[in-house]
Q: What sequence folds into this?
């Protein structure tokens, strides 16, 4: 054992010995635990873990088993650190039918799949508040597309992919009238709808498009998972509030002994679409995508195809499920559909084959708005007894075991898919929400670890005032019993997470944008083409950055109230050499330009004077010298437009005097 790891062992045993709580975690043979999470300097982690940022609207990328934060990728929220949502190229990504929405609540990352296994191409994630689904490209760790989901409010049961990304789904947690309109909230039962959405994913490009929606009774559609193997072609959505309360849901939605899992036969939906059984419903929604030129543009959808179970029999069935279920998870074989009955003292497990039989034999207990409700006994495969309290979410290890998070009793319960018997329980600190096994919702889980994503952190770290970081905990699951290896704080509030082996994507990472392929209309591919152009009170500064100067770095002739567009191209063609750009008093963020990339910041100077700009990213020994000046004169001033770059010299030398191109 190296000296470093001996030290780590000693520290870890100290930490545990010092804890002294009666309920001390079952830390694997202490030193052992330290060694298992220790990734030596210069070594890589084994897994990439993608954690939703929850109310920070982003995705956090962590290495496992170390728990090291590798990246914080902006998705739904503006990110001043790199200008995401501030730069002219990226603003349109945050366009919605409600206008520019620079924040969201992101809950469920989903890796794209091929044959039911994560393939490392894309990551999808839902925006809950202003219903959206985003797609990230995993060769760049960049958000490439955001699609708004109409007729929805609280896109929570989303984006959950099917086996080959045929669809990612959406489902409204808050039912609303679809299309939305001015009605009394008292008319909830008659005027409100619970709409599910199926979004087609192009298998070559990943581009998303709404294929169809399904109008269901106004319940709260909470979580989802697609079928796999034999259940491929189906998607399952939990619902609560089958009581259809419209206020004080805490009480009013907790009356029924059972709510429902909606089982949707999407192949049947496709058949009904072909038979033109859908109705066209007007809906305006934004569809934003980064183009090949790196510039985001918005297109507008104007309607959706809406299916109803009444017009398309066989489309939807309800599986009664105790008690306001939260998570719904399908095991690797595709046979078991596990619900998290968050107020139940058991874990209900439905059988897909029994469900098929029940449908064939019409084992219906009732019908709700044209949707057959199957008999509970007819579909249930078993109930996990005494699993703990507050089951929420379940993941699988691919070795015949399921792991369920127990929110109320703060633990992970491991149980057998053979006999539904509990085989192990381990405490979590505290109040676990989701949990995650790498590939743990796929056909072939990668296993090895389970990560608990905890809601409450109290006393686990040095205190930081009233607000504490949320906390993840890493457990080893290779043996019979789970063993806690590591705590690590996380960014935002991770709900769900997904992970895949690093080798799936680490060698496919883009290192720079090829400068010669830069298609931004204001790109300057060499210093020769840098320039400043005035068109009325709009000024375009076409500039470059390279270690360690900007071109131009001296500009005069700008006037108060001008809209100054700084288009900065990073000329570097080397990995890991971004440059930054910031200007005094800009009502905006900075820009970070990756090698070969152009980014644009708009600045409207409000007062006269001299305004420095500089590079914000320490790029070389002469980074501090990477700066420049802009002179701002009064409105109507006739200070000529002037800058120091070859284009200006050329014009001036040709006898244009102070006149500059575009003036
Ligand atoms: Cu359980 Cu939004 Cu998936 Cu949080 S949700 S925990
Ligand atoms: Cu460029 Cu610092």
A:
């Amino acid at each position: 054992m190296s000296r470093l790891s001996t030290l780590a062992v000693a520290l870890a045993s100290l930490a545990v010995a010092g804890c002294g709580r009666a309920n001390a975690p079952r830390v694997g043979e202490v030193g052992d635990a330290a060694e298992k999470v220790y990734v030596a300097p210069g070594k890589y982690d084994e897994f990439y873990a993608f954690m939703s940022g929850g109310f920070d609207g982003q995705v956090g990328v962590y290495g496992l088993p170390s728990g090291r934060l590798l990246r914080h990728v902006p998705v739904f929220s503006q990110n001043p650190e790199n200008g995401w949502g501030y730069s002219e190229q990226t603003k349109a990504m945050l366009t919605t039918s409600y206008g520019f929405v620079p924040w969201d609540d992101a809950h469920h990352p989903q890796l794209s799949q091929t044959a039911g296994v994560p393939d490392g191409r894309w990551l999808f994630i839902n925006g809950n508040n202003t219903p959206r689904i985003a797609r990230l490209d995993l060769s760049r760790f960049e958000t490439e597309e955001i699609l708004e989901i109409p007729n929805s409010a609280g896109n929570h049961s989303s984006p959950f992919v099917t086996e080959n990304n045929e669809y990612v789904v959406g489902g409204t947690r808050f039912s609303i009238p679809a299309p939305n309109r001015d009605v009394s909230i008292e008319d909830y039962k008659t005027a409100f709808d619970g709409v599910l959405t199926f979004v087609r994913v192009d298998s070559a490009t990943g581009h998303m498009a709404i294929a169809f929606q399904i109008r269901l009774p106004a319940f709260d559609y909470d979580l989802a998972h697609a079928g796999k193997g034999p259940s491929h072609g189906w998607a399952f959505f939990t619902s609560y509030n089958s009581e259809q309360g419209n206020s004080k849901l805490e009480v009013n939605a907790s009356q029924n002994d059972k709510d429902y899992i909606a089982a949707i036969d999407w192949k049947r939906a496709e058949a009904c679409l072909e038979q033109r059984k859908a109705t066209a419903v007007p809906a305006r929604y934004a569809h934003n995508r980064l183009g090949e030129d790196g510039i985001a543009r918005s297109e507008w959808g104007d309607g959706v195809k809406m299916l109803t179970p009444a017009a398309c029999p066989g489309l939807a069935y309800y599986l009664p499920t105790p008690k306001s279920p939260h998570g719904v998870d399908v095991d690797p074989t595709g046979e078991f559909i596990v619900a998290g009955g968050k107020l139940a003292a058991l874990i209900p497990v439905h059988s897909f084959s029994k469900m098929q039989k029940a449908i064939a034999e019409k084992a219906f207990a009732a019908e709700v708005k044209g949707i057959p409700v199957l008999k509970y006994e007819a579909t249930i495969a078993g109930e996990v007894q005494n699993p703990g309290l507050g089951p929420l979410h379940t993941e699988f290890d691919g070795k015949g075991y399921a792991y369920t998070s127990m929110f109320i009793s703060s633990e992970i319960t491991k149980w057998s898919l053979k006999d539904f018997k509990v085989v192990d329980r381990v405490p979590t600190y505290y109040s676990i929400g989701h949990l995650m096994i790498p590939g743990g919702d796929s056909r072939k889980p990668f296993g090895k670890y389970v990560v608990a994503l905890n809601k409450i952190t109290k006393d686990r770290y040095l205190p930081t005032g009233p607000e504490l970081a949320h906390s993840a905990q890493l457990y080893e699951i290779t043996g019979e019993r789970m063993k806690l290896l590591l705590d690590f704080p996380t960014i935002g509030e991770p709900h769900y997470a997904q992970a895949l082996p690093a080798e799936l994507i680490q060698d496919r990472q883009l290192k720079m944008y090829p400068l010669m392929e830069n298609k931004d209309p204001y790109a300057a591919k060499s210093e020769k083409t840098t320039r400043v152009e005035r068109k009325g009170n709009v000024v375009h500064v076409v500039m470059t950055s390279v270690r360690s100067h900007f071109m131009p770095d001296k500009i005069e002739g700008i006037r108060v109230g001008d809209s100054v567009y700084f288009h900065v191209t990073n000329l570097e063609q080397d990995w890991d050499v971004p440059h930054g750009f910031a200007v005094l008093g800009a009502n905006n963020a900075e820009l970070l330009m990756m090698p070969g990339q152009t980014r644009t910041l708009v600045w409207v100077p409000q007062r006269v004077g001299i305004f420095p700009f500089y590079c914000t990213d320490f790029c070389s020994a002469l980074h501090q010298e990477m700066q420049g000046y802009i002179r701002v004169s009064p409105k109507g001033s006739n200070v000529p437009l002037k800058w120091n770059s070859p284009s200006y010299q050329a014009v001036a030398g040709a006898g244009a005097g102070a006149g500059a191109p575009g003036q």
Q: What stands out?
A: The CA atoms of residues 201 and 208 lie 5 Å apart. DSSP finds eight helices and 44 strands in the chain.
